[in-house]
Design a protein that fits this description.
The chain is of the alpha+beta class. It contains four helices and 13 strands. The protein has one domain: Pseudouridine synthase (2-Layer Sandwich). Strands 1, 2, 3, 4, 5, 6, 7, 10, 11, 12 and 13 form an eleven-stranded mixed sheet that branches. The chain has a two-stranded antiparallel sheet with strand order 8-9.
Length: 242
């Protein structure tokens, strides 16, 4: 199905039961407070009054977000997520080099205030499969497949491998600076301080697949967002492994 836009949202899949939104970074899945910028759900309900989000993405995360059009479809999706029958794939650009090869990270997670931490005593089971797909001198691109759906799961699991996601300050990620990777870097005349190459957490929900309420197999891919593609273009130019 061709991509179309509904009230500022990019809809990359639609049938009588479900929608898949290519969520932009900086837009919350749900309303954060009364006077907040319109969330994905609020924008959807302007066009589809019965729409419900079947899962959530963090505000800074871009990519595939599944919504249902009616109650029966929502219930079906909720059961699939609960039984871990939705296959989700994320792409993360991480600080540091890595060499993951279908590595399963099995670390239980516990919410602790605004953070999530590993807790073997109190945490809930959480597993993520990591696979490095591109390496640079100071960064790496990692495909992440969460087998469970805990809050901040991918972010914490990568941080525990000493590969926090770029700009994920909460879990040790650092802002990427061009001066760190480009020789003979100089600020422009109008700049007093260097700005990061990218200013949001470098995480993208690149795909999802599941069996629909009518038995059809749905598989959707979200191309990498423009800001992450621009970041990778810079890394491929200045941070290559010699």
């Amino acid at each position: 199905m061709k991509e179309n836009r509904k009230k500022g949202l990019s809809v990359i899949f639609e049938d009588e039961h479900y929608l898949v939104i290519d969520k932009p970074s900086g837009v919350a899945s749900l309303d954060e407070h009364v006077f907040s910028t319109p969330s994905v759900l609020r924008l959807l309900k302007d066009r589809y009054p019965g729409a419900q989000l079947c899962h959530r993405l963090d505000k800074e995360t871009s990519g595939c977000l599944l919504a249902s059009k009616h109650t029966e479809a929502y219930r079906h999706a909720a059961i699939l997520f609960e039984k871990r029958l939705v296959d989700k794939t994320y792409i993360a650009i991480c600080n540091g080099t890595s060499n993951f090869s279908k590595q399963i990270i099995d670390l239980p997670l516990q919410i602790s205030g605004k953070r999530v931490k590993v807790s073997h005593r109190y945490g809930k089971a959480a597993q993520t499969i990591l696979n490095t797909i591109e390496q640079f001198k100071h960064f790496s691109v990692v495909e992440c497949k969460p087998l469970s759906g805990r809050t901040h799961q991918i972010r914490v699991h990568l941080a525990e491998q000493n590969n926090p996601i770029v700009n994920d300050i909460l879990y040790g990620g650092e802002a990427p600076l061009l001066s760190k990777i480009k020789r003979h870097f100089h600020l422009s005349k109008n700049e007093e301080h260097e700005s990061p190459i990218i200013e949001r957490i470098a995480l993208h929900a690149s795909g999802l697949s599941f069996t629909s309420i009518d038995g059809k197999q749905i598989s959707v891919q979200c191309t990498l967002s423009k800001d992450l593609e621009a970041f990778l273009k810079i890394l491929r130019k200045y941070d290559v492994i010699s």
